[in-house]
UniProtKB/TrEMBL annotation:
Record flagged with keyword Iron-sulfur: yes
Domain of life according to the entry: Bacteria
Coiled coil ranges: none
Gene Ontology terms for molecular function: catalytic activity; iron-sulfur cluster binding; metal ion binding
UniProt signal peptide: none
PANTHER family: PQQA PEPTIDE CYCLASE, RADICAL SAM DOMAIN PROTEIN
Domain Radical SAM core residue range list: 7-213
Gene3D superfamilies: Aldolase class I
Region (Disordered) residue spans: 252-287
Organism: Marinactinospora thermotolerans DSM 45154
Entry keywords, A to Z: Iron, Iron-sulfur, Metal-binding, S-adenosyl-L-methionine
UniProt xrefs under CDD domains: Radical_SAM (cd01335), SPASM (cd21109)
Name the record gives this protein: Radical SAM superfamily enzyme, MoaA/NifB/PqqE/SkfB family
Amino acid sequence: MTITEIRSTPESLWIDLTRKCQLECIHCYNDSGPTGDHGIMSRDDWIDVLDQAVTTGVHHVQFIGGEPTLHPDALDIAAHALDRGLSVEVYSNLVHITNAWWSFFQRDRASLATSYYSHDPARHDALTKRPSHQHTRRNIIKALKLGIPLRVGIITTDGHDLEATKRELEALGVKRIGVDHVRPFGRGSEGAAPDVSGLCGRCGDGRASIAPDGTVSPCVFSTWMEVGNVRETALKSILSAPTMRDARALIRAEKKDDNPPTPPVPCRPDDDGCRPGIPPSWCGPRR
Ligand code: SF4
C-alpha cells in the first residue's frame, strides 16, 4: 500500500481504557500515573463500542492506558472482545498480573505486549520511577513459560544499553523485540504542545483510538485531535465523518516531504508495524 491509499474503515482500534498506572514513567505519552482515573466510559459503554466495532469491520483491538489491567471492568470487557471474535492484545507494564489475567492471556487470539527500558534494573527503575524492573522481568519470564504470545518494546531515549538489553531479552526467550524512541507527547513532551510531526503519518488509516472519556482520535498518540465521542455518536459515523478525514489529511500533510513515508512498514495496531515498541516503530507509544 502506498501513502496515498488510506483506509477509512478501521480494522483495528486502541481501547485506551484508563489513565491510572502503578508507574509514573518520565516519558509517558499520555501522563498516566497513580493519580490517574478510569474516565467516564462505563463497562456497558465499552461493551457497546466493541459490538459496534465488530459490525464496522474491526478485527483487532489493543487494550492500553495507563495500565489497562487496573481498570475494574477490563477483564470483562476484554473477554467480551474475544467472545465477539476480535483478536485482543493487552499492553501491560507487567508489574502485577492476577491469575484471572494469566488465564485470559492463554485464550485463543489473546496476546501480551510490554515495554522494557533496560537490562540494568537501576536504569529501568529510574525511568518508571518505581522499583518495577524485577516485576516486569519476572512476568516476562512467566508469560514465556505459559506460552503466551508476547512482544516486548525496548523504549530508549538515547540508545544506551540497547544491544545489551536486546541480548538479555533474547536470552530469556523473547522472540518479538522492538525498539522505539520516546515520543514528544504527554510527559515526554516536557511541557511542549503536541506536535503533529511526532506522529507516524498513518494515524486514522485503518485504525483509531477511543479514550477513557469516549473521545475518538486517529491514533493513541493523537488524542488531542478529537474527531467525535462514542457516548454521543455511533462509532461508524465518527470514523466516516469529514472531521476524521480532515484529521487524517492534516497528519499526512505534515509528512508530505517524507519520502519514503515513515514508518516504512504499514502502521497498524494489528501487525508488527504499529504496536508499541515494534520496529521500525516510529508509530509505537512510548511506554
Ligand atoms: S508509560 Fe506506560 S507504564 Fe509508564 S506510566 Fe505511562 S502508562 Fe504507565
